[in-house]
From TrEMBL:
Residues 993-1033 are annotated as: Disordered. It comes from the Eukaryota. GO terms for biological process: jasmonic acid mediated signaling pathway; ubiquitin-dependent protein catabolic process. Keywords: 2Fe-2S, Iron, Iron-sulfur, Isopeptide bond, Metal-binding, Ubl conjugation, Ubl conjugation pathway. One of its GO terms (molecular function) is oxidoreductase activity. This is Cullin-1. Residues 383-613 form the Cullin family profile domain. CDD domains: TRX_Fd_NuoE (cd03064). The keyword Iron applies.
């Protein structure tokens, strides 16, 4: 039976009844809801009209009438209702009409759903839902959005002024802007957000101009923080979330950026006043407000730096004034007070940095720069390095003015080491500290050995092992000296005839560790000569290869003085004792007689006689009775001397050692500058004057701040000594000058380097190392020339032929086409994110600790080896001198300095693996691949190297395969255990085919690292050892 054809007018009239009913429902008129039968009839009508045969297929006409239905409804009902309302009432009507419109679109789209499924899909027309929303946009939104925008902004401004508004209404209105964009934010941003942001700028600009005049800095910041909080709340309640960063940026700009300088520099309440008055909460608020603004913290950090610098300078000036106005001993106390105040100042502002400023790097940098300014000033002629060393001495010695508990001493030492980081002349501190440490150790003035070792550990962590090596040697020397003294006492007990009759304590020191002291060939009294000979006899029984040099100036003697009233024990130096013992045989001696008998210099003898005759304790009487000693004076033993104490110490007049220390340090600095210049030129080959100076400063600044003039002077000196030469075409360019050493005839039997080191090493314990070096100096020069020639020959080989086992070659670099500093190298985009992740594991001020994982990542990216340009890139990332990275890369065997294959095979060479056949496994690999150790196969796939212990000796022998074939993204590092020569060849062939050989143990009888045949228990019969038969033993 044929379906009856429905005309367009007839069908549309029926549809109009449904549309009219829907309109009445939307307008709130009394109308029953659609039942399922009505809905199905309306849908069926559209279906029938669209599926009739042409020319009765009315799909296109129905599509057009669908649009007309919306347009008619909007024109007749929606627009008139909106036009007659204004402001908030208009917004409410708009929300209502938009809600009704969406309902209408939803229902009509259901009625006309057949069009959506077939007709619209075939013709690629806009879907019904979109047509409905477009009608509202074109007819309603485009006409009213300007008024709506103005009404919304007016309500927002009212709320900013403290009035209550309907936030839900604004949320619904602004949702219209978002929804009308149909997935795009263009309408919201262009028709509302931009205007809202402009209004926000204007509003807060007016507020800021008023507040900055009326309010103090803390009040202004409170208001600003409250405004930012409320703007974020507005976003949460009715604005779109994408507006938050833009809105906050506008508010921050108007309130905080525009008036930043005026706010921070407010006279009585700005940043300086907050720091001065310790307003911690306000400073924290200032950080919270400015840290999210680009470069917003820089002015705050600058003011912080200036404030800390001013406070530090005031402390230094106060100490300077006090030292100028008071006596020398009081001035020394004031200098120690200065260090204590500087430590307190550092503690105070470090709390600010960590708590108020949340450990931000800018403030760490500001604090560091501020302390570097005033911590490197001199006070009453004393450098900060000397003051710090004296402060440490005062804490660590017995009877110091600092009476502290053990915990307080440890804490103070920790802070002293932190202060040392700000001092540029660390080498000067080291020398002063070493001098004072020597006095504490030698004269038994150290309060606690644990504290001495503790500060050395802290200094080692801060400045490196080289900084404390001599000091650690001094402490060790004292321990050995005590053991040596015990042996000497046992020797005297066992050899009564050798006993000198005097209690003798000798401290044997190693020359290289201790400061240099004057040593004179004084004519000792017979009692002392006997003591010296006895100890020499004892020492020769222990060793005959060491020379003893006696430093009498450091000796101490206890002499019993027999005076008329009572005997008194005198504690004097060895020199003073020698003078006093002369009066055992005579009552009176002239200056010339004493000088002739003791063989001392005039300067030293004057000091000795002054201490005994002109100071507090007048053991000798001088004629004439003046306060100075002259060569015409005569001296007599004062038998009537007395004192209320039975033991007195007679000190020598103090000698100012500052000048000598500074001269010694200046001399060492000249050597350091020379070494740095030569090291740089050996590395760079050709370098401009300015770059050479700057690199030299960079290398040396870790220990001291070199003077530019001194560097230039050392450069000229090196030129005259033929270490450097100027470029003939460009005098501002420098080159290292080649030194040619020709082997002398008859040098075929040059000793090995190990033999020479053993000679020098055996003599270093002897005090006459200079004799050995003199004897072997020519031989050493020839050896060096020969060794250098070997190294150059190795580096002239192609990179693939450089054997990694040639360890000396690893510490040199010669440019090659694929390995030179000027080749560009940087981390890939994927690895840059890994670099950030690696750095995030370390504190910002310790990012150099990431050097090993970064070098490993660079090696993975570069196919398994590290060119010098990659090391330079790592140095740039962690902000250190390139030499620091070179040191790590050349020290650890995990970093390859020459090219390796895509599969780098490493054979474990430690004892367990060697016993189990690792040498056979290496030979099998090398023979199979046709290469030597360190070479790469011609196809670039394989290379073989040696590795130290792989940490699984129970599964020896073993190899690892570093797989660089897929770059750093696919890098793998796999262990193969229990291997045999046949098995490693099989592994190589699988890798060559692109297969993945099974990792782990290659022994089928073993599970992981368990024993062959499975685990055993204490209850089972034990298996016999693998390597011997117990029954045969």
């Amino acid at each position: 039976m044929e379906r009856k054809t429905i005309d367009l007018d007839q069908g549309w009239d029926y549809m109009q009844t449904g549309i009219t009913k829907l309109k009445r429902i939307l307008e709130g008129l009394p109308e029953p809801a659609f039942d399922s039968e009505q809905y199905m009839m309306l849908y069926t009508t559209i279906y029938n009209m669209c599926t009739q045969k042409p020319p009765h297929d009315y799909s296109q006409q129905l599509y057009d009438k669908y649009r007309e239905a919306f347009e008619n409804y909007i024109a007749s009902t929606v627009l008139p209702a909106l036009r007659e309302k204004h402001d908030e009432y208009m917004l409410r009507e708009l929300v209502k009409r938009w809600s009704n419109h969406k309902v209408m679109v939803r229902w009509l789209s259901r009625f006309f759903y057949y069009l959506d499924r077939y007709f619209i899909a075939r013709r690629s027309l806009p879907p019904l839902n979109e047509v409905g929303l477009t009608c509202f946009r074109d007819l309603v939104y485009n006409e009213l959005h300007t008024k709506v925008k103005e009404a919304v902004i007016a309500l927002v401004d009212k709320e900013r002024e403290g009035e209550q508004i309907d936030r839900a209404l604004l949320k619904n209105v602004l949702d219209i802007y978002v929804e009308i964009g149909m997935g795009q934010m263009e309408r919201y941003e262009e028709d509302f957000e931009n205007f809202m942001l402009q209004d926000t700028s204007s509003y807060y600009s007016r507020k800021a101009s008023s507040w900055i005049q009326e309010d103090s800095c803390p009040d202004y910041m409170l208001k600003s923080e409250e405004c930012l909080k409320k703007e974020r709340e507005r976003v949460a309640h009715y604005l779109h979330s994408s507006s938050e960063p833009k809105l906050v940026e506008k508010v921050q700009h108007e309130l905080l950026v525009v008036y930043a300088n005026q706010l921070l520099e407010k006279e009585h309440s700005g940043c300086r006043a907050l720091l001065r008055d310790d307003k911690v909460d306000d400073l924290s608020r200032m950080y919270r407000l400015y840290h999210k603004i680009s470069r917003g913290l820089e002015p705050v950090a600058n003011i912080f730096k200036q404030h800390v610098t001013a406070e530090g300078n005031a402390l230094v000036q106060q100490a300077e004034d006090t030292a100028t106005n008071q006596a020398a001993n009081t001035a020394s106390v004031q200098e120690q007070v200065l260090i204590r105040k500087v430590i307190e100042l550092h503690d105070k502002y470090m709390v600010y940095v960590t708590e108020c400023f949340q450990n931000h790097t800018l403030f760490h940098k500001a604090l560091k720069e501020a302390f570097e300014i005033f911590c490197n000033k001199t006070v009453a002629g004393s450098s900060s390095a000397e003051l710090l060393a004296t402060f440490c001495d005062n804490i660590l010695k017995k009877g110091g003015s600092e009476k502290l508990s053990d915990e307080a001493i440890e804490d103070t030492l920790e802070k002293v080491v932190k202060l040392l980081a700000y001092i540029s002349d660390k080498d000067l501190f080291a020398e002063f500290y070493r001098k004072k440490l020597a006095r504490r150790l030698l004269f038994d003035r150290s309060a606690n050995d644990d504290h001495e070792r503790s500060i050395l550990t802290k200094l080692k962590q801060q400045c490196g092992g080289q900084f404390t090596s001599k000091m650690e040697g001094m402490v060790t020397d004292l321990t050995l000296a005590r053991e040596n003294q015990n042996s000497f006492e046992e020797y005297l007990v066992n050899n009564p005839a050798a006993n000198p009759g005097i209690d003798l304590t000798v401290t044997v020191l190693t020359t290289g560790f201790w400061p240099s002291y004057k040593s004179f060939d004084i004519n000792l009294p017979s009692e002392m000569v006997k003591c010296v000979e006895v100890f020499k006899g004892f020492y020769e029984t222990k060793t005959k290869h060491r020379k003893l040099t006696w430093i009498y100036s450091l000796g101490t003697c206890h002499i019993n003085g027999k005076f008329d009233q009572k005997p008194i024990e005198l504690i004097v130096s060895t020199y003073q004792a020698a003078v006093l013992l002369l009066f055992n045989t005579t009552d009176k001696l002239t200056y010339s007689e004493i000088l002739g008998q003791l063989n001392l210099s005039h300067e030293d003898l004057v000091r000795l006689l002054h201490s005994l005759s002109c100071a507090k304790y007048k053991i000798l009487l001088k004629e004439p009775l003046t306060k100075t000693v002259s060569q015409a004076d005569s001296f007599e033993f004062n038998s009537k001397f007395t004192d209320r104490m039975r033991r007195i110490k007679i000190p020598l007049p103090p000698v100012d050692e500052r000048k000598k220390v500074v001269e010694d340090v200046d001399k060492d600095r000249r050597y350091a500058i020379d070494a740095a210049i030569v090291r740089i030129m050996k590395s760079r080959k050709v370098l401009g004057h300015q770059q050479l100076v700057s690199e030299c400063v960079e290398q040396l600044s870790r220990m001291f701040k070199p003077d530019i003039k001194a560097i230039k002077k050392r450069m000229e000196d090196l030129i005259t000594r033929d270490y450097l030469e100027r470029d003939k075409e460009n005098p501002n360019m420098f080159r290292p000058k080649a030194i040619v050493v020709n082997p002398a005839p008859g040098d075929s039997e040059i000793p090995s380097l190990a033999h020479l080191v053993s000679l020098v090493g055996s003599s270093s314990s002897d005090q006459s190392a200079s004799l050995v070096f003199s004897k072997f100096s020519k031989m050493l020069a020839r050896l060096a020339a020969k060794r250098l020639l070997e190294i150059r020959q190795v580096f002239r080989q192609p990179p693939s032929q450089t054997s990694r086992s040639f360890s000396t070659a690893l510490n040199y670099h010669l440019n090659s086409p694929d390995n030179k500093p000027d080749l560009p190298w940087e981390f890939s985009e994927a690895n840059k994110s890994k670099v950030k992740e690696i750095l995030s594991y370390y504190p910002t001020n310790y990012k150099q600790s990431a050097v090993i994982p970064l070098l490993d990542l660079a090696q993975q990216q570069h196919g398994g080896w590290l060119p010098v340009s990659a090391m330079n890139a790592v140095a740039n990332v962690i902000e250190v001198a390139p030499i620091r990275v070179y040191e790590v890369a050349t020290f650890y065997s995990m970093f390859n300095r020459a090219k390796v294959g895509q599969y780098h095979l490493l054979v474990c060479g430690t004892t367990p693996c060697m016993v189990r056949g690792s040498r056979d496994i290496e030979s099998a690999l090398l023979d199979h691949l046709g290469v030597k150790r360190g070479e790469v196969t011609k196809d670039g796939l394989f290379s073989v190297g040696e590795m130290e212990c792989m940490g699984c000796c129970v599964n020896a022998p073993m190899i690892t395969v570093a797989d660089y074939s897929n770059g750093s993204e696919g890098y793998t590092y796999n262990y193969f255990e229990d291997v045999t020569p046949e098995k490693v060849v099989e592994i190589v062939e699988k890798l060559r085919k692109g297969e993945k050989p099974p990792r782990g143990t290659q022994n089928p009888k073993r599970i992981n690292c368990g024993p062959e045949g499975g685990n055993t228990t204490l209850l089972s019969e034990p298996k016999p050892p693998q390597f011997r038969d117990l029954d045969a033993c």
